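Changelog-adjacent note: as of this version, every example in the card shows the full chain rather than a window. The one below runs 652 residues end to end.
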Amino acid sequence: MFRPIHIAGAMLLAFCRVVTAQEAEMGKSIKLDPIYIQLGQQQVEAEKSGRAFTIISGEQLARSQTRYVADALRQVPGFAVSRIGSYGGQTSVRVRGAESNHLLVMIDGIEASETGNGEFDFGGLQVADIDRIEVLRGPQSAFWGSNAMAGVVNIITRGGTRDGYRISGRSEAGTDGTWLGNVLLQGGADNYDFALSGAYRQADGFNISDFGSEKDGDRNGTLNGKFKIDITPDIVLDGTLRYAVSRSDFDPEGTFGTPLQGIIIDGDDQTERRELLGAIGLTWTSLGGALTQKARISDSDTRRDYLKNSDVIAGNEGSRLLGSYQASYQLDSELLGGSSHRFTAGYEGERENFRQMPTEIDIASPWYDPTQFEEHERVVHSAIGEYRGEFLEQFYLNAAIRRDANDRFRDASTYSVAAAWQVPGMGTRLHASVGTGVTNPTFYEQFGFIPSTYRGNPDLAPEKSFGWDIGVEQKFFDERLVLDITYFRQDLTDEIITTPSADFRYMPVNQGGSSERQGIEISATLDLMNGFSAGLSYTYTDATDPDGREEVRRPKHAGSVNAAYEFFDDRARIFSELTFNGRMQDDSYRTAVARRVALDEYMLVNLGGSFKFNDRIEAYARIENLFDEEYEEVYGYNTPGRTAFVGLKGSF
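Full-length structure tokens:
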């Protein structure tokens, strides 16, 4: 179980020894451009934030040949990823022991989580057009609203360029009948830019059941476009539009009351998901740049259908329309040796809709009520205030407060405070944050309806949490080695669980007591400036229910190690990745009442390389699950064995 900890320690010792030699040889500092991260209404230089964060650049994703965002998040401290079966299968992500609907996912400033269950399905999210992924851990509701209780994954796709036109693309093939292709067009002139991209990936897959021989595959396509226009030097118009569609094969569980109950069996079942996201915004800067005003409207529409033998048997659809306005004022002062203050006030109005389609089984039920399948709507109005201060070029403070006025359940107030101190001359950054979070009941929890087995509860209250973290980041050897250690604690109250009701049907209720989550996150990066780079992450998570039981699909120990080496004038590159997932609990439905089962620990190793023929053409290859490890992320579902891929990419 503790092999990754031993590996991590050995890697860190090796880092220090090798870096010391490199320091003597090179004798100069590394100067890096500032990295910014979006904190709700404001963009902040990353090192001036007191919040725990991770930034994954598009270049990092390309170098590691990552294809799905979920696989990139496996390398992030505090994250646990669970994919049901084959490529494209429903994929949930949990942060710091929280539920998957406690993580807010934003794509180009648009909330992408489904309104029905409040979760974002990472199964089909490709990285082809992504410029960067910003990850914030800890309660972020004061900045981002509901569902940001445990953290935020903020995805920014690639934008245009104002120095002409550029087209780039790639094609890849591999085992399990896998093929991928994507193309990106970027262009613009002095006062505008745009980007258009398309990506498609298909895989025949493998059998996710232990029975039969049929393969469960996936088809996945995405179109994305965005633009920016300078109407005047002080007024900028921007917009984005994204359409994604996927169809994934899956196998159902055996019917209740039969010998195959709770067992994954072969079946010609599929799920199809269609997603449309769009937004347009206006930014106006005045008073010499001191005052910035932003107005934005966004809309998202998601439909999910369940098919059997290519016929739709069930489904649901939801939409989310959001309008926002904010004004920020920058005030600089010479007091206290120089300080900077930024005040922001904003308003958000959101309307959500949801509709569930009845099945033939529902209609035949004696409990069938057609009014339960009508469209449901809810509205929230939010007032937001934020403050950001900088003092003596070493102390940084971020704070926010938010009030949500809901029409379907209790109103909620949340706050967040974070601070960072860059200790002069020591390469040390101390950081800490404290805050509250809320997650609204999902539409399915409020209004979902399966006549014979499940009914929603419109009287649910939002889930609430209080959390804090504290950590230290230390830079060694002129920033060639960066180490960060963070302790976190977060308690959840009014957790929504499902229990039997008086009529023997299941119904969600707010649970009493507190669910406790705490742990330690460790990350380290190394760049020797001689072609060798490496990274390490480790997380210890202790997540329990109010009754003390361990939460499912949350390993106590998880981590990763990666290393890469570039040579031959940086034209050739080889890399390796090791991902460890410790022993964890899951639910089995082999009996009438769910029982806990243990999923064994596993370790996956990936290996890859690339070669640049010139500045425009590059070939690459990789092997995933090099040692053909057998493992489960979800009880009863098979996972991929050893796979290999080769590809070619270019730009013109």
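Structural remarks: The first strand starts at residue 36 and ends at 39.
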